[in-house]
Each structure stands twice: as structure tokens, then as C-alpha cells.
Design a protein that fits this description.
Its EC number is 3.1.3.48. GO terms for molecular function: protein kinase binding; protein tyrosine phosphatase activity. This is protein-tyrosine-phosphatase. It is an enzyme of class 3 (hydrolase). Residues 375-384 have a biased composition (Polar residues). The chain is α+β, with helices and mostly antiparallel strands and 384 residues long. It has a single domain, classed as Protein tyrosine phosphatase superfamily (Protein-Tyrosine Phosphatase, Chain A). The protein has helices at 38-41, 70-79, 86-92, 96-104, 181-190, 270-285, 302-319, 324-334, 342-363; strands spanning 3-6, 48-51, 65-67, 137-141, 152-160, 170-173, 195-198, 203-204, 206-207, 217-220, 223-232, 237-245, 248-256, 292-295. A 9-stranded mixed β-sheet has the order 4-5-6-14-7-13-12-11-10. A 3-stranded antiparallel β-sheet has the order 1-2-3, with no helix packed on it. α3 runs antiparallel to α9 (342-363). The longest helix is centred in the C-terminal third of the chain and has 22 residues, at 342-363. The chain is globular and about 55 Å long. The two termini are 30 Å apart.
Amino acid sequence: MSELVESTSSSSSSSHPVDEDQSGSCPAATAPRRTVRLQERRGSNVSLVLGVSSLTLEAVETLCSISTPRETILHLLRTSTRPLTPSQLQEAAEETSRLNSEYQKIPTNFVNPSELDIPGRALKDRYKTILPNPETRVCLRNPAAEEAGETERYINANYIKGYNGAPSTYIATQGPMLNTVHDFWEMVWQERSTTIVMITKLKEKKEKCELYWPEKEGSYGRFELRVAIVKECDSYTIRDIIIQVGSESRQVRHYWYSTWPDHQTPDCTGPLLRLVADVEEHRQSHPSLGTTIVHCSAGIGRTGCFIASSIGCLQLKHTSKADVLGIVCKLRLDRGGMIQTSEQYQFLYLTLAQYSRQLVNTDCGSESPVPVPVQTGSTTGETR
């Protein structure tokens, strides 16, 4: 893979104040250090430079630098790869310095606001620098307003490819705001989604997501919602919600993983792996299900961790290899900034390394081992 290195002018902080997503610490972590935010490190408009002399991730030895055109960045995201066997994956998960370096070189592919000339858009974006990539943006049909010429309603969401490049397997989106709750349910209905994965509390110092479902029953625009079943699991809650429009009704399964700690990655990989397995089992038992909707607050950090973990587990199961670098690059093609911090990137490696161990133990007929504790660097940033 060609190497990307930043120009010296990009090291200063962006002028855009942005909240960060979850990033990691744990009880046995090293002393706290300040995590460099994606927007601070690059910024949506900061140019990158290409080190043309290096073609691998092993070292960067820049002989000359040129401005990086967008097509070069897209090419890097499409072609970068590092498939690892379980043993290689487990070894790589311990190489935190290398993983940090690997992560820093992945282009963010953030969107310039000028690419989204949509009236009223800014009022529906939770964070002004976290925007949906135009090529994969979810466009809400607006039948009620078609006669008035308004054929689309804006929502900050992107289609995300799944395992083996399967199109529109997921939708990554921001946590609904007070003025976008109706749009969220319109998307659920339009995409015939029957699975929603939520990975954030409603409030973490500040609001991260509007409560968009009722305790029992409620009306949300043209939708009537009724909570049929609530089941408490380890670290997350499952709700079966009946959504009805006129005489038509559908069931949506809502997974709420609310225990991902503020300002950190989880202390161990087990809860996320159980959630990934539970959601995948639900998908496999209902092969006609629509797109799985995943959100945190901004829809790139914890959301990216869940989707990347899901794809990586399927890679290990079907090919006995996992390509974390390739997964994250492909995610960023669909939605800029997916996997928001270096700590999340390390946590992804640890999660898939643990899953590879579980596969080996399952093949040997023994029970899965207790998930190993996570030890990544701390952060002082706010979370998404």
C-alpha cells in the first residue's frame, strides 16, 4: 500500500470544535494522554501528501511529496489490505505502536460541506463536520410532498457494504435529534429495516441521542409504535417494537448497548462480541430482512467498531483471516471517519483476535475462553 503522511501544516488544530467518539482506557491502562482528534489531525479540508517512495506499511522514507488528489486517496482506500491469520492477528493486536502508525495513515475521507448543497441540511446534522458521503448517502423519499416538488428528505446516514462487499448491508447514521426522529423512522420504514443497533447512552455530559421510542406506545409522525417485548441481556437491552402505518405493521428488533463507557473503549471484548453474534444470528434466522441500521451519536466511532467487528468475524469464520486495515478503509469509502480514534482501532484488533481464539476453542469442542481485558491508551476527549 502506498504511504500517506501529513504535511507539517496539518498538525495544528482544526478551527471546527467537534466532540470525539469513544476511545480507550481501562483499569490497567497507561497514564492518560491526550488523544489527537481526527479533525485536529487532518481536518476535512486539510491536504495530505503522498510519500511515493514507500509501497508498504513497514516504513515511510519520503523522497518527494506531491499534493494528493482525491482519486489517489480513493484508490488507497479501495486497495489497501493486510489480511492476517489468527496467530498473526493475535500478535498484531499487541503491537500498539505499529497499529497507531497504521491507523494514522488511513485517509479519513471526510466530506466538504460544499458537496452537500441541500436546503435545511445543517439543521439536521448533529455535528457540523460529520457529514454523509454523497456517493452512498441515504435519500429519503417524501411521497407526501411530491406534489409540491419536494421529492427528498435529508438524513445524515450512509449505506455501508458488508462482508465480501455485499451492498447496503448496513446503514451508519447519527443518533436521532429532536427534529430528526420522524426522519429516522421514515428511514426504518423505507429500507424495510427490522434491526436497529444503538451504541450510546442518551446523554454523556451532553445529549448524544434523542429518545426515539416509547416506553410502551407512542406516535412519531405517521408511525404508531408499540414496545412488545423487553429483554435484558449482559451489557445490552433488546426491544421488539411494532411499527404500524395504517393497516400495515412490521416488527423491528432494537439492540441498545448502553454500557460502552464514556471516554473509553470497553474493558473487555466479550460484550461487543456477544452483541455481534446476537445480531448476526437474528439476521441469519430472517434472511429476508432489510438493511441493519447502526448508530451511536455521530455514527462513525462506536458505529464503525460494531460494523467492522461484524465484518471481521465473518471473514475469520469463512476465510480464517481478518483484514482490519482493509475493512476500515472500505468503511471510510462509504462514510468518512469510520473508526474515530487510534484506541478504537486497537480495540478492533483485540476484539477480532479474541474471536479468533473462540473459533479455535469451538473447533476443538471446548467452551469459549473468558474475554481478555483490553489495555489501550487513555483519552481525555469526549465521546460519540
